[in-house]
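ok here's Chromo domain-containing protein, seq below lol
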Amino acid sequence: MLKKCMGDPSLIIPTENISIKDNLSYEENPVQILDRQVRKLRTKEVTSVKVLWRNQFVEEATWETEEDMKKRYPHLFESREISYQGTNSLPSTL
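and the structure came out like this:
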């Protein structure tokens, strides 16, 4: 038996902001790296990063391998490396 369902209008994504192709698909682009973790297996360690994708909420972020993300989207990691540099330097006052 079917029941009446009330949809949540806050979960609707406007289609004007998404470039949909003729075959009704679109490419999702990463926006930011939210977290990083290392999972230890029996013989190796796998580094994963939590990726926030465009047109998705933070709760929908996914865990991807760091190696794969560095190959496909190196610009996400360049900005993090630059932000870590210079954090130990103190401003000089003359």
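fwiw Confidence is low (pLDDT under 50) at residues 82-94. kinda neat tbh
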